[in-house]
Amino acid sequence: MKRMFRGWTWEATLAVLILLCAAWATSLSPFYLDPDQILYSLQQALAVAGLLAGGLMMIVIAGEIDISLPATLAMGTIVFARMAEAGLPLWLALPTVILLGVCAGLVNGLLVVGFGLPSLAVTLGTMSAYRALALWFGGQEGHADFPASYIWLGSATLFGALPLSLLLLAAIFALLALVLHGTVFGRLLYMIGANPVAMRFSGIRVGAVKVAAFAAAGGITGLAALVYVGQFESARADNAGEILLFVVAAVTLGGIDVFGGRGHVAGVFLALLLLGTIKNGMGLANLPGPVQTLILGALLVGSVAIPQLARLRLRPRRGAANPDAAGVPRPAVPPHGAREEKT
Amino acid sequence: MTDETQLRRLAHRMDRRAWLKLALGTGLSLPAVAALLESSGIAVADTGLRIFMVPKFTGFIFFELARAGGEQACKELGATLTYVGTTTADVEGQVQVLQNLLPQKPDGIVIAALDINAPVPALRQARNRGAIVVTFDSDVAEAGRDVFVNMAPFEVQAKAMLDSALANAPDGGKAVWVAPTPTVANFISQKKAIDAVIASDPKYQSIQFVDTLYANDDPDKSYSVGTSAMQANPDLKLFISGSGISTPAINKAIMDTGRQGKVFATGFALPSTMKTYLDNGTCRQFALWSPYKFGYMATYMSAMVKAKKISDKPGETVDVPTIGKRTIEATSIVNLNSMLFFTKEHPDFDNAVSANI
């Protein structure tokens, strides 16, 4: 009960920020306040990046990171393109690409767990490897000949305005919330992220759970590849080269601790909406590119630094303090000392 | 308008941007920044045609000059130009920029596309809503644009490179063509045009191509490919490349191996990457098209087609101020056809020697 209340505070902060940003965007541009415009813009900003953030969230909660997801996405779009060119139906292509994503995630997970390597280094390496595979399989040129069935998920709208890919994003996040907050697997992810050593001593198969998180993120990325193909009607090996900043910003701004072990699914979803609204507002106001990148980067740093600073200030009064005062989500499992012991 | 004023204006704009960064850095809130922008006139457009220029990415001198050209065209035509883009070559980001233009109902979009396909769905929507889309520097699929302003026909590009080669080595000699890979269409066409020009014009017949090398648009690869070619052919005189990355890298290889004055590398390159080699005589001349006129012409076309003052139908001839008469070719392609030559005395975009070949 208490935990739920604590989580609620950060999400409420995000919700308030979304409203403030929407108001700001309205004041900045007369074109903002139009449901069609807002939905279309959110689709463009979030449909693909949001799915990646959903996958990454699981990995970060388990105390790891995966920066190869955009490369996996590119690989997926290339495979879709090649399968479309070969005239294969979607019901064959989609499972293939999702499976490919799962395999890419498995490789990441097994390298991290099997050899005890830092996930940042491993996925930096596999990122290049997956890009190379995409390049090798797709060549340097772009692919654009997709049948209508391939494009449907990423481009169709319900009732003429509601993008299907946004509904898909919401559905995946609902599923993720269910898994992370309502299943044993989800609880294990949090506990492993907070204190892997204690989990190992408790007889939990820490490695298997982590590998599963990597694989699941890969699978979601495979699905994101289909959304990408529908949204851009294009596949190229260097697709989504710049998406990582946005994805990581969404995860950290959503209140997921970069060191693992805490944060809520709803927070990441709201952070996505917030970032989408900010991007939309900045775009409509025609802010210069450097300013937009600067703001996004500042949000990323801020979202990592502010909880950390708040925690430092709270530490002396630990136990007696009310952490909600700072609007900082508190851990599901107290991480006290966990980070120092983590191997 | 002189090039000097262009640059001064450019510098002024940079200042404004620096101010913005400073303001953000010192912790000004978003609304304050917005107010600042509004007061500086970036965010608001008012009367006349509203043209949006979307570069491949911002902050790069080539596109900043194209922007200056576009602003000049808008000034002459009573239109306003808004320049928006991402800071890096970000395909999805460019598409989002376009998507954010849609609700603003632009009259014209002038874009250097990062991908031939990805921007097409957004551009198609913009065209359906009445925008005239003009691509420059790099095209999109035809469904996405009304006109493509090409830098120059391949024959003109070829002559510009060969003229530069002769400016380096007046007596010609053995030459090597450096391309990124065997498959990039642009470079295949450039080389074919070079061969055709040499075959038909005696002026260039002293240049004999002995080999074609592939350097993958990569500086390190270009450097090593250049070095080994010079070892393999002791009497080699010229490297000619249409790759702006290979040309300076091979110049470095020539400089490092002490072959200055014996071998020359020329073709196309960005002046900023070549200054050292022009200064110390490793390279005497190279070429590129004028980004200022590029931006000017693309913006001019967009505004004039929207105003129905000119037609974008193939076969039409358009008289572009300061550039000249240009005929729109099949699939609505029109050539800028204005080359710039860079030498030690004229090393920058703002003082390069321009020529219509």
Question: Can you offer a commentary on this structure?
Answer:
The complex is a heterodimer of chains A (343) and B (357). With 343 residues, chain A is an all-alpha fold. Chain A is 72% helix and 1% strand. Chain A has a single domain (2-333), classed as ABC transporter involved in vitamin B12 uptake, BtuC (Orthogonal Bundle), CATH 1.10.3470. The two termini of chain A are 32 Å apart. The model of chain B is unreliable at 14-47 (pLDDT under 50).
Task: Provide key terms for this protein.
heterodimer; A: 343 residues; mainly alpha; ABC transporter involved in vitamin B12 uptake, BtuC; two-stranded antiparallel sheet; 2 strands; disordered C terminus; B: 357 residues; alpha/beta; Rossmann fold; 3 domains; six-stranded parallel β-sheet; four-stranded parallel β-sheet; 11 helices; 43% helix
What topology emerges from the helices and strands here?
The complex is a heterodimer of chains A (343) and B (357).
Chain A: H1 2-28, H2 35-61, H3 69-85, H4 90-114, H5 119-138, H6 148-155, E1 157-158, E2 162-163, H7 164-182, H8 184-194, H9 196-201, H10 206-232, H11 244-253, H12 265-284, H13 289-314, H14 338-341
Antiparallel strand pairs in A: 1-2
Chain B: H1 3-25, H2 30-40, E1 50-54, H3 61-77, E2 80-83, H4 91-101, E3 108-111, H5 120-128, E4 132-136, E5 147-150, H6 154-168, E6 173-179, H7 185-200, E7 207-214, H8 219-232, E8 236-241, H9 246-256, E9 264-267, H10 271-279, E10 286-289, H11 291-306, E11 317-320, E12 324-327, E13 333-335, E14 339-342, E15 353-355
Helix pairs in contact in B: 1-3, 3-11, 6-7, 8-9
